[in-house]
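Hi U.,

Before I forget, here's the chain from the pilot set. I'm dumping it here mostly so it's searchable later in email.
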Amino acid sequence: MGLIFHDLIKFDDAYKIINENMEKLSDSEIINLSEAYNRISAEDIYSKNNLPLYSRSQVDGYAVISSDIKDASYNNPVKLLLSGETFIGETPVNHPGSGKCIKVPTGGAIPIGSDAMVPFEDTNINGNTVIFYKSVPKFNEISNAGIDVIKGEKILNKYTMLDSRHIAVLAATGLDKIKVLRKINIGIISTGNELIYPGDNYIDGKIYDSNAMAIESELNSLNNFNVKNYGILSDDYELIKNAIDKSVNNNDITITIGSTSAGDKDMVYKILGEYTPGILFHGVRVKPGKPFIFAKSGKKIIFGLPGFPVSSMMILYSLIIPNIFSIFNYNYNYNKINAYTKENFELHVGNTDLLLIKLLKKDKKYYAYQVHGNSGSISRIMRANGFSIINSTSEYLKKNTEIKVNIFNNNIPDILIYGQYSPLIEDMPYNIRLKSIFIESGYNDIIRSMENNEADLYILNYKNNPENKNYDIIKIGTPYGFVYSKRNYDTAAILYKGSGLYDYSYDKLNTKNIIYLDNPNIIADYVKNKRCDVGITYKNYAEYYNLNFDFIDNIYF
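Structure:
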């Protein structure tokens, strides 16, 4: 990688440099209130009306002059003449005076001259006479105009991100339009000879461009950006430079994906170095995402993301999105919770680790499990429900350490399934899968977890399953065997060493060319796509991929 990454910048310093170079936005636009969700207000807003807009009843009952019934009781009821009725949406009527009452529904306007409401349940009616059994104070069960918001009161601060609560209050005051900061224009450019578009026919050696679609959808979900995708560019210097020039001229921010490292085909850092002031840093002490670039052309911002999917998304979450919002004078924060690690987390000393996290909620506490994999394993993001930013000073974050987790959504599972991967997981009822997380582990860790009664369900496929008084044991047989494209094979695939299926498989393959995979489903996929000749996996995967299957035996989970 040459000399480019010999002087990496710290994560916190990278954050600070980006933040300091984000010039504040002042341009605004007026939009319909119905389109304002997540937009940033451009001014303080003051109410043009009282809330409630008029004095209204909080009950179904009778509007009275409170002094008329000040001595009313069950032993001394007071009778008033019913002199009329009002309805929702009608303008206030005049109260006819002492000795009389008017029927008013919940939400109806209080008659002018009355000063209290009496619920139906504290009265009785006989013809046109209403009998009152209780006295009430002035303003009983009345929401007076302006008791919530007074006309002229500030109801929204400048630089507030509007949500449905703000919109409800603004609409209640009669507002239909609002001045907000304009959207930021962002261009996205994907680079790489290996990329093809989702939907294209697959070609060996190519990969579908998932990064651009993920980044575009994430930015669009925030409703403050106009995002233009410039498509996929091959590794050609002039082609990439022309596209970056076009995006820089037409947008506030340009995001490139790929070509940020130091290989012969990596063009982006060379092109960005030609701008003024050019590259402000190239390379961050962060895992994943080390080849990240931050550059400027005049006042225009350019982010150069690495090509691996997890790297690009984690940099987007941690360094780009929060800093883009600083342009609006808005402090963007993810929802955070405190959680306790339920295993030792692997770290990279001297770096900031961006850890994808699986969260579990138990007894009003949150517990965190690390989602393992490399920076190209994009499914890790889908399997996570949050991420943590850890400045790593040791090789491990010890079990039971409290950490902060930025959550992607509020759907935190409360059922823990622990053990070895099995087709049984996919056959579980939908409502169980929706409310659960699966943590894969080896035999010794499973036994320790069972002793501590940590999980709701354990899945094991070892021959000598443990007896445990805290759990009922149900044995289910799952057929496994050879899946193959040809019987005479050179390469074979089995599950990784230490998995239960590995113990049943390793002595049944007559070859030294063995591929160890993480998932029994992937074994069938490898055979189907001729990445290997044969594999040992479960029968249901053979059926799913329409492969030849030779039964070996049943594994009992």
